[in-house]
TrEMBL record:
SMART domains: LRR_SD22. PANTHER family: LEUCINE-RICH REPEAT AND IQ DOMAIN-CONTAINING PROTEIN 1-RELATED, LEUCINE-RICH REPEAT-CONTAINING PROTEIN 9. The keyword Repeat applies. Residues 264-316 are annotated as: Disordered. Pfam families: LRR_4. This is Protein phosphatase 1 regulatory subunit 42. Residues 280-292 have a biased composition (Basic and acidic residues). InterPro entries: Leu-rich_rpt, Leu-rich_rpt_4, LRR_dom_sf, SDS22/Internalin_LRR. Keywords: Leucine-rich repeat, Repeat.
């Protein structure tokens, strides 16, 4: 097993150049950058003498656990991508950490970031997940990161929704390529809340082939400058914004007309009113007065009307109905 120790640091070429003028202890106290990438390291030993360390490169190794970094209160950049890390842990003392690179590990849950009050960049792309699983996000960590995080890389993690990321309203860059995102309405809703988003890369997601995909996202993201590697022309953006505003206004007007018609004609919304059939007419209950001088004849309804021998009405009314041609 290869461990990152003070002894291993003393064998580095950088210390060899400085050893003539200072001791190892002095060298370690002054050390700000430490690069042990691609050294087959499996574990991190006690490095508490490196109290001024600000940048640590440990990518392309075989580290399985983040540990023994509690001393590094001045650390701002930590590069641990392409290792065997399965859990994000033991980072609570890194209050100055602004960039964290953990891509290419075997992490299944983004968690353990609650105390990282200065984190601006988080890279967790390409996790080696079990078949059929996706990367998920702990709400507590996302809530805390919402105050600081600007750049997020979650590409190649089988992610099919981003509702959990909605609180990250200070994001300026999102890299989410090669996932399973497909709900355009969900993306519009979430991205419209990220008022500072300037770069968005969703290449190789199912949503990219949806109708009006690019137009809809440009409209939702008011200051977006780059979508899927293509710059956004300001004139085109303004045209799309105006087009959407016009479309929404027309829809609102049409909806208002529909509601007004429903109020004015309530029966037409609930019943099918077919053509009215004429009422049956009993010829025996009517008599027709012949037309005179070419005038149309007049039919008098005498339903429920009885007359005496002199032709006077005893009850009912006469209803004149014109017949014939004019």
């Amino acid at each position: 097993m290869v461990r990152l120790t003070v002894h291993l640091i003393s064998k580095s070429s950088n210390y060899s150049k400085a050893c003539r003028s200072e001791s190892l202890q002095q060298y370690l106290k002054k050390l700000t950058h430490l690069n042990f990438s691609n050294k087959s390291i499996e574990d991190i030993d006690d490095l508490s003498m490196c109290r001024n360390l600000t940048v640590l490169y440990l990518y392309d190794n075989q580290i399985s656990q983040i540990c023994n970094l509690g001393f590094a209160s001045n650390l701002t950049h930590l590069y641990m991508q392409n290792n065997n890390i399965s859990c994000i842990e033991n980072l609570s003392s890194l209050h100055k950490l602004s960039k964290l690179f953990l891509g290419g590990n075997i992490i299944t849950v983004v968690e353990g970031l609650d105390e990282l009050k200065s984190l601006k960049e988080l890279h967790v792309e390409g996790q080696k997940l079990p078949r059929g699983e996706k990367l998920i996000f702990d709400p507590r960590s996302i809530s805390r990161l919402s105050e600081t995080l600007c750049i997020l890389n979650i590409s190649k993690n089988n992610i099919d929704e981003i509702w959990d990321l909605a609180p990250l309203q200070k994001l300026t860059h999102l890299y989410a390529t090669d996932n399973q995102l497909q709900d355009i309405k969900e993306l519009e809703t979430v991205f419209s809340q990220w008022s500072q988003l300037r770069l968005l890369d969703l290449n190789n997601n199912p949503v990219c082939v949806k109708p009006k995909y690019r137009d809809r996202l440009i409209t939702a993201c008011k200051i977006l400058e780059d979508l899927d590697g293509k710059q956004i022309n300001e004139l085109s953006r303004q045209f799309l914004i105006n087009w959407k505003a016009s479309k929404d206004a027309k829809k609102k007007l049409d909806d208002g007309k529909d509601i007004k018609e429903q109020i004015s004609n309530p029966l037409t919304t609930d019943f099918h009113v077919g053509p009215q059939q004429p009422f049956a007419h009993d010829r025996s209950s009517s008599r027709t007065k012949p037309s005179e001088y070419g005038k149309p004849g007049v039919t008098f309804r005498t339903d429920q009307v009885q007359g005496d021998s002199r032709g006077r009405r005893s009850r009912g009314i006469y209803i004149p109905v014109r017949t014939g041609r004019l």
